[in-house]
Amino acid sequence: MVAAPPSITARRAYVVDVTTGKALMSKSSTTRVQIASVTKLMTAYVVLKRAKLNDVVTVGKADIQWATSHGATGGGFKAGERLFVRDLLYALMLPSAADAANALAVKYGPGKTKFVARMNAAAKSLGLKDTRYANADGLTSTKSYSTARDQAKLAQIVLKTPTLSTIIKTKKYTTPATKIHRKHTWTNSNKLLSEGAIGLKTGYTAKAGYCLAFAQVKSGHLIVGTVLGDKSDAARFTSARKLLNWAGAQVAAAAKA
């Protein structure tokens, strides 16, 4: 007998067994909502389509002020620091640095407007029919939205991208001091990594609530999921943990049947 999905506090959720292609659980998964910094999965994907990892990008005063003025997380940069794209992707994905997102968008749009257009073009080409981006950092906008199902689909694509699949499962990253930038150390905000998860991205705004795209191998199967609109930082990890454990039990039970 198949056990019912666990009760979770997230308002939207979607879980898929990537190994079999079977959707395991859906909770309002096609409702269009804000997704906060889960947006940065697409930002990183678009950057990698246009950049080389050893390209050098300047983090400007405007990038830092944008993050600061919106109460967003920053990477601890000083205006004028120049970093490799590789390093900025770690800043983007681990601490969720909005200044890194803006610096990359300015460079690889070029300009934020063109970069967002590239994000939306990528969403269309990837079949994310219920997704629209308004910025590269996920800050609240009346023009942006996605769904739990679309973001689970994007998560699968990100996991197949070698550079990103390495970055999203990294717990801590340090870039040493050089002639063009200071030493930086960034810690991943995804607490599930210490429990065997292999990604992907956290997000939070007052409008979106607490969000998380997550992935883990359970009983030999890759399980990918998203929870959107959860009530707290701890709650989103609890919701994801419950879903992963439940999905793992389903996979194990199916193998024995």
Tell me about this structure.
The protein has a single domain (12-256), classed as Beta-lactamase. It is 37% helix and 21% strand. The protein is built from 8 helices and 9 strands. It has helices at 40-50, 61-69, 85-93, 98-108, 112-125, 148-159, 162-167, 233-256; strands at residues 12-17, 22-27, 56-59, 81-84, 172-175, 184-187, 200-205, 209-218, 221-230. The strands form 3 sheets. A 5-stranded antiparallel β-sheet has the order 2-1-9-8-7, sandwiched between helices. β7 (200-205) and β8 form a beta hairpin. It is globular, with a radius of gyration of 18 Å. The N and C termini lie close together (10 Å). The mean pLDDT is 96. Pfam families: Peptidase_S11.
C-alpha geometry: globular
Number of strands: 9
Strand order of the largest sheet: 2-1-9-8-7
Main sheet overview: 5 strands, antiparallel
Based on helices, strands and strand pairing, what is the structural class? alpha+beta
Rg on CA atoms, Å = 18 Å
**Helix segment tally:** 8
Instruction: From the 3D structure, determine the CATH topology.
Output: Beta-lactamase
Average pLDDT rating:
96
Helix content, binned percent: 25-40%
* CATH evolutionary superfamily: DD-peptidase/beta-lactamase superfamily
The CATH architecture category equals 3-Layer(aba) Sandwich
Count of distinct structural domains: 1
Strand content: 15-25%
Report the order of strands and helices. Answer: EEHEHEHHHHHEEEEEH
Distance between the termini: 10 Å
Contiguous uncertain segments of 5+ residues: none
| The CATH top-level class label | Alpha Beta
